[in-house]
Write a structure and sequence with these properties.
The protein is built from 28 helices and 23 strands. α1 (21-33) crosses α14 (342-355). By secondary structure, it is of the alpha/beta class. 46% of the residues are buried.
């Protein structure tokens, strides 16, 4: 039996713009690289960038830490792409691609740092919800960051608490909450107040405002003001720690110089230019970060020549704007951390290491166990697993439009090999009629009567069923039936699995399998489950399709088979044996039947987590579960639900499906030696697609067990 999967990622998100997310990303990357051999970086949604450029966040992290990752692999969408797709109601496609891109990164690295959106520009109003949705569907825990700038203590803590509750309500575990850019003297107070409002297991930290990180570099100033570099290009990453205007006489201005200050002066003030440069190399004055010349004025040639001869230089840039407008523009620059600015990167990492409980945080990340699996991730994993070892599935109902459309989708994603049963000309006519665009060269089409294997299959059926008074003539008649022919293909190993039932009854589909594929040696009853893809989790319902009134022994076997199916599809089973009563409170024949079945499961498979009899609310609601069965490791956490009879199971799955808009995949038949699955006659194209994928994975499981 598998344990919960170990977490492989963290989602870093903020509550607003300019929260200082980069400090956490850089600091955590530095810490993780000391614990994991390979750490990846992924941004689901990035800001739009100009042609020829790349995203600054991705470039900074990947360059500084020398990550082995291609830029195009490190993100899924640009902001404008997401807005356009949301306007077209393509939310499902957005999440699907994000999962696909993330999983590709996850497969290559030991751990992945996922950084959320930046809350700037069009669409920022919905970004918080998008970040919650992405973290939920990637099934990774989160770190939430908020800025203390311009907020009272109550506003800051309230902001973080609401964000925490929003993530928790959607099933996202929040490991750490960080208040960033708080006043140094308020750091302890902020931490103390956050601890009062958040659960004790949440790591709480506060990082004081660091003025250095807010100062723009000379490069940023050049970019904003479209400046021209005259001297000192190799020093343009200097930080402008402050700035002052050189409008007064030099002797007076020298008194206003500050360490790492930027000198702003008209380009014809040679006295200020030369005085500032001299002060920079003097032990008696502060060093400056650069000189900005306004008005588009360039010093005279004699001054240029003098500057060229200096042994030590700072960046000198020229801009066209006036002195005071330029000064205002510099004051409004929102400085960022970028790859070449190692001073800011180093300072960010130092602040993170100083003010965040790094060891405790990394330990939580590495040892954190994820709960369950999200529906979208489940579907992604199904498709990927099917594609990992393509299986051959036969679809007997080759003339049905839904079957043909699902076949095209399956071939387009290259998930399985398909054989359709039916007359080839009629199938071609159907494809043309419905304009499906299915390439017949990509599939097999077999007309049972014309098949080279027809006589062989009929003889095999005769040998298998002659003890039931089936003669060769009867065997040939049966073999003309597509369900018998398709099932025989599976039996003979000419196909790995079969899916039918779009136009045939369950009995028509399953009977041939029961007659000669038969049940596994350890199984005496064939049963079924549905994978119920609810909004925030995947549950397994059984048996909702085959057995009307199972005995205690049969219920136990259904539970054990359902646990095996769950494990085969990556779900760690917690089995609830459902009844109208929980624990020992109820009496009656129906309750006793479930109680006996539960004890049998515990006896036969003591390794399985199972409890019953238990009511549905106690099985899914942690508060009700703890109240009714306080010592249960299943109550409130169940993901495999065994219904006491077909009437209850079938009605429940259909009610849940309709009322919650859940996707129900199934029924998935369990207990057979080889996979044969049934469709509802009201099935959709998606139902067929998903059932074929599941059948292919069952076939992989059969092969793996045969190879073992």
């Amino acid at each position: 039996m598998t344990n919960k999967p170990t977490n492989k990622a963290i989602y870093i998100t903020t509550t607003e713009p300019n929260s200082g997310k980069s400090i956490v990303s850089l600091g955590l990357m530095q810490a993780l690289l000391g614990k994991a051999a390979k750490v990846g970086y992924f941004r689901p949604i990035i800001d739009d960038f100009k042609t020829g450029e790349i995203d600054n966040h991705i470039n900074t992290v990947s360059t500084y830490f020398n990550l082995d990752i291609n830029f195009n692999d490190a993100y899924a969408f640009k902001r404008s792409e997401v807005i356009k797709m949301k306007n077209l109601n393509k939310d499902e496609e957005i999440i699907r691609k994000i999962i696909e891109k993330y999983k590709a990164i996850e497969d290559r690295f030991d751990f992945v740092l996922v950084e959320g959106t930046s809350f700037v520009g069009e669409g920022s109003i919905i970004e918080f919800d998008i970040n919650v949705l992405i973290a939920k569907n990637l099934n990774v825990p989160a770190i939430i960051i908020a800025s203390g700038v311009g907020k009272t203590l109550d506003e800051l803590v309230g902001n973080l608490q609401m964000a925490f509750d929003s993530f928790k309500d959607k099933g996202v575990e929040v490991i750490c909450v960080i208040a960033n850019k708080v006043e140094q003297e308020n750091q302890s107070l902020v931490i103390s107040e956050m601890e009062k409002h958040l659960p004790s297991e949440v790591i709480v930290n506060a990082i004081p405002l660091n003025p250095i990180l807010g100062f723009p570099s000379i490069k940023e100033i050049i970019d904003v003001l479209d400046g021209k570099i005259l001297f000192g290009e190799s020093y343009i990453n200097n930080q402008a720690g402050s700035f002052s205007v050189g409008a007064m006489q030099l002797p007076n201005y020298l008194k206003h110089l500050k360490e790492n200050g930027l000198v702003i002066t008209p380009g014809d003030r040679a006295d200020i230019i030369l005085g500032a440069l001299q002060a920079h190399i003097s032990d008696n004055y502060p060093s400056i970060s650069g000189i900005l010349l306004t008005g588009g004025l360039i010093p005279e040639d004699s001054i240029i020549k003098l500057i060229e001869g200096l042994s030590e230089i700072v960046p000198i840039i020229s801009v066209t704007g006036g002195t005071y407008s330029v000064t205002n523009s510099i004051g409004n620059i929102k400085s960022q951390i970028y790859a070449e600015n190692t001073q800011k990167i180093t300072s960010s990492i130092q602040d993170f290491e100083k003010y965040v409980e790094v060891d405790a945080l990394v330990e939580r990340l590495i040892t954190f166990k994820t709960n369950g699996i999200t529906p979208r991730m489940f579907r992604y994993n199904l498709l990927n697993q099917a594609k990992s070892s393509k299986k051959h599935i036969v679809l007997p109902e080759g003339l049905d439009e839904r079957i043909l459309r699902a076949t095209k989708q399956l071939i387009d994603v290259d998930a399985v090999k398909i054989t359709l049963l039916g007359n080839k000309k009629q199938i071609e006519e159907k494809i043309a009629l419905f304009e499906i665009g299915l390439d017949l060269n990509s599939i097999n089409i077999i007309d049972p009567i014309e098949s080279d294997h027809f006589e062989e299959y009929a003889n095999t059926l005769f040998e298998l069923r002659k003890h039931k008074n089936v003669n060769i003539s009867m065997a040939k008649d049966l073999m003309e039936d597509v369900s018998y022919f398709g099932t025989m293909m599976v039996y003979k190993g000419h196909a790995d699995g079969m899916v039918s039932g779009a136009i045939h009854t369950t009995q028509h589909t399953i009977l041939p399998a029961l007659q000669f594929i038969k049940t596994k040696p350890e199984v005496s009853i064939v049963s079924s489950v549905f994978f119920m893809l609810l909004e925030d989790r995947v549950s397994v319902y059984g048996d909702c399709a085959i057995n009307p009134n199972p005995t205690s022994e049969q219920l136990a076997e259904i539970a054990i088979s359902s646990a095996a199916t769950s494990l085969a599809f990556g779900i760690d089973p917690k089995i609830a044996m459902l009844s109208y009563s929980s624990g020992t409170s109820g009496v009656g024949e129906d309750v006793e039947r479930v109680r006996k079945a539960t004890e049998m499961v515990k006896s036969i498979r003591p390794d399985l987590k199972v409890d019953g009899p238990i009511q549905y609310d106690a099985a899914v609601d942690i508060k009700v579960g703890k109240l009714k069965l306080p010592n249960s490791e299943v109550a409130g956490q169940a993901n495999v639900f065994i219904f006491p009879d077909l009437n209850t199971g079938n009605n429940t799955y259909k009610a849940v499906q309709r009322e919650t808009k859940a996707l129900a995949i199934g029924p998935i038949i369990q207990g057979l030696n080889k996979p044969v699955n049934d469709l509802s006659r009201g099935c959709t194209i998606d139902d067929i697609f998903n059932t074929v994928i599941v059948t292919a994975i069952q076939a992989q499981d059969v092969q793996n067990k045969n190879d073992a």
